[in-house]
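Section 3.1: Structural characterization of target chains.
Under the original work plan, the team committed to producing a structural model for every single-chain target entering the pipeline before any wet-lab resources were allocated. The record below documents one such target. The sequence was received from the expression subgroup and is listed exactly as submitted; it comprises 197 residues.
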Amino acid sequence: MKKITSVLFASAITTLASIGTAEALPAGWACVGNCGTLGADGVVTASPFSSDYEWISTDGGIGGIGQIGGAGGTNGSTLTTNLFAANAGDTLSFFFNYITADGAGFADHAWATLYDSTFSSETVLFTARTTPSGNTVPGFGLPGLAPGVTLAPASTAIIGGGPTWSPLGSDSGFCFDAGCGYTDWILMNYIVPTAGN
C-alpha cells in the first residue's frame, strides 16, 4: 500500500509573518517532495485564515524524507518556512488539517516543529497520527507538544471515509483501513518564550 499523509497549513502567524494568496509557495519557503498552494478542494474547505492554504503530501514524496524519530515510514515530504524573528511573548498561530487515505494498519503521521536559526532547538507544535478510534491529534506514540502550545480543539478524532482531495493523487477518494479521513481545520497557538530567530 502507498502511504498518504497530508498536512495543510493555513498560515496566520500573528506578529511574526504573513503570506499572500498565490499558486506557488510563499517566497522563501522550501519544499522537498510534494508541496503547494491550493484553495478549497474536495473535503478541504478554504482555510479559516484566507481562501488559499499551503499543503504537503507524501503522494509524490521521497524515500526517507519527512520522517519523525520512532514513528517509522517510507516516503514523505518536508516544507520549511523562511527565517523570521520573534520577541518573547509573541504568539505564533496557524491552522492545519490532517488528511489520510490510509488507515490504522498503515499509521500515517504528521507534525510541525519550530527550530531556532542554528537548528539546535526543536519545539513540537503539533502531531497527528492515524488511529482506528480516538484522537488523531495529538498523535499517539509521537513526541509531546511543547510547553506553551495550545490546540483548538484540544483533541480531534478523524472525520471518517475516503477523503477526496487532489494532493492525494490516485488515492483521492479511497480508504484503505479504519481511521482514514480528515480532521478539518485545527488552530495551533504557541507563546514564544524567548526572543530569537
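The two ends are 40 Å apart (CA to CA).
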